Amino acid sequence: MSSLHSIRPWRQIDRRKSRQIMVGNVPVGGDAPITVQTMTNTDSSDVAATVAQVQACAEAGADIVRVSTPDESSTKALREVVKESPVPIVADIHFHYKRAIEAAEAGAACLRINPGNIGDATRVREVIKAAKDHGCSIRIGVNAGSLEKHLLDKYAEPCPEAMIESGMDHIRILQDNDFHEFKISCKASDVFLAAAAYQGLAEITDAPIHLGITEAGGLTSGTIKSAIGLGNLLWSGIGDTIRVSLSADPVEEVKVGYEILKSLGLRHRGVNIISCPSCARQGFDVIKTVEALEKRLEHIKTPMSLSIIGCVVNGPGEALMTDVGFTGGGAGSGMVYLAGKQSHKLSNDQMVEHIVEQVEKRASLIEAEMAADAAE
Ligand code: SF4
């Protein structure tokens, strides 16, 4: 990380101590970075379409991708998907224990399954044996919308207590079968319900926690809901892996997931653009410039910051804290800042090309610095 972003005590989040499990080759929990997940929405038996979507999500930064496997043709296709995927694949199973066994055999890194929903103890044992034999972890996925009937009868409605009890019942089944490679989620579309259930669970289990606000909505509303729900939990240290659920392209879910983590300093990837909303004082078209730069800089994976500020009111101050900065001045030109220092004047019409060049250069320098730090 560039020295411009050194850790300050008031920026640090103390993460809840969870035990670590592996999802394929990706650690989840403990001191592992918080991972970003998404889920494909292709027909899972269509290998080419599913692989293409998994790859696009991985390219956007997804650490783990979930694929729904509701029938035999999709568990068959899963074998090919797993082979082609650059990231571990979680198979999403709901009720059928055979799909879980097939998915484990097909190479799924993790099964999303609620052991209490798949039938009698023999079936549960068979699924757990398949998971053990094939090195799969399991995610228990409690959802406020599909709580067990006896819990709804007991609590009258979905509530944090019912969700926590459901989660602990499923955990007990796995533990009774000597299976410990599991993580847990307890999602709800209501942020208060989800947050209370997650907080309760976090206190009574050390299992890694998969965070999500389910059925959060479309791109804008779902992003806001997720940022509030997940942001609140992450800020209090809860959460080892996240999935943002949007009625949108899964690639967008990955981008939003990263933005949430980046805002809290929990993960760093790519260019963090700091830009002003613009007003009559702007020395250039801030909105169009930022839109162009967001597209042109998508290929940068190095964690770094760029400030694009319309005028000298806030520009120089922001530029002091970013790796590359541009502040609008007037008369068709502005000032470029590099590594927090004023560097040179630049004409507005060359701005996008020149800034892309400067960001690429700076990214190489930061990469070299990080490699040198790692070698020490
Ligand atoms: S930084 Fe300047 S241009 Fe941007 S919103 Fe503030 S006053 Fe307006």
From TrEMBL:
<keyword id="KW-0408">Iron</keyword>
<dbReference type="GO" id="GO:0051539">
    <property type="term" value="F:4 iron, 4 sulfur cluster binding"/>
</dbReference>
<feature type="domain" description="IspG TIM-barrel">
    <location>
        <begin position="18"/>
        <end position="258"/>
    </location>
</feature>
<dbReference type="InterPro" id="IPR011005">
    <property type="entry name" value="Dihydropteroate_synth-like_sf"/>
</dbReference>
<protein>
    <recommendedName>
        <fullName>4-hydroxy-3-methylbut-2-en-1-yl diphosphate synthase (flavodoxin)</fullName>
        <ecNumber>1.17.7.3</ecNumber>
    </recommendedName>
</protein>
<dbReference type="GO" id="GO:0005506">
    <property type="term" value="F:iron ion binding"/>
</dbReference>
<dbReference type="InterPro" id="IPR058579">
    <property type="entry name" value="IspG_C"/>
</dbReference>
<keyword id="KW-0004">4Fe-4S</keyword>
<feature type="binding site">
    <location>
        <position position="318"/>
    </location>
    <ligand>
        <name>[4Fe-4S] cluster</name>
    </ligand>
</feature>
<comment type="function">
    <text>Converts 2C-methyl-D-erythritol 2,4-cyclodiphosphate (ME-2,4cPP) into 1-hydroxy-2-methyl-2-(E)-butenyl 4-diphosphate.</text>
</comment>
<dbReference type="GO" id="GO:0016114">
    <property type="term" value="P:terpenoid biosynthetic process"/>
</dbReference>
<feature type="binding site">
    <location>
        <position position="276"/>
    </location>
    <ligand>
        <name>[4Fe-4S] cluster</name>
    </ligand>
</feature>
<feature type="binding site">
    <location>
        <position position="311"/>
    </location>
    <ligand>
        <name>[4Fe-4S] cluster</name>
    </ligand>
</feature>
<comment type="pathway">
    <text>Isoprenoid biosynthesis; isopentenyl diphosphate biosynthesis via DXP pathway; isopentenyl diphosphate from 1-deoxy-D-xylulose 5-phosphate: step 5/6.</text>
</comment>
<dbReference type="GO" id="GO:0019288">
    <property type="term" value="P:isopentenyl diphosphate biosynthetic process, methylerythritol 4-phosphate pathway"/>
</dbReference>
<dbReference type="InterPro" id="IPR045854">
    <property type="entry name" value="NO2/SO3_Rdtase_4Fe4S_sf"/>
</dbReference>
<feature type="domain" description="IspG C-terminal">
    <location>
        <begin position="272"/>
        <end position="361"/>
    </location>
</feature>
<keyword id="KW-0560">Oxidoreductase</keyword>
<dbReference type="GO" id="GO:0046429">
    <property type="term" value="F:4-hydroxy-3-methylbut-2-en-1-yl diphosphate synthase activity (ferredoxin)"/>
</dbReference>
<dbReference type="Pfam" id="PF04551">
    <property type="entry name" value="GcpE"/>
</dbReference>
<dbReference type="InterPro" id="IPR016425">
    <property type="entry name" value="IspG_bac"/>
</dbReference>
<dbReference type="InterPro" id="IPR004588">
    <property type="entry name" value="IspG_bac-typ"/>
</dbReference>
<dbReference type="Pfam" id="PF26540">
    <property type="entry name" value="GcpE_C"/>
</dbReference>
<comment type="similarity">
    <text>Belongs to the IspG family.</text>
</comment>
<feature type="binding site">
    <location>
        <position position="279"/>
    </location>
    <ligand>
        <name>[4Fe-4S] cluster</name>
    </ligand>
</feature>
<dbReference type="InterPro" id="IPR058578">
    <property type="entry name" value="IspG_TIM"/>
</dbReference>
<keyword id="KW-0479">Metal-binding</keyword>
<keyword id="KW-0414">Isoprene biosynthesis</keyword>
<dbReference type="GO" id="GO:0141197">
    <property type="term" value="F:4-hydroxy-3-methylbut-2-enyl-diphosphate synthase activity (flavodoxin)"/>
</dbReference>
<keyword id="KW-0411">Iron-sulfur</keyword>
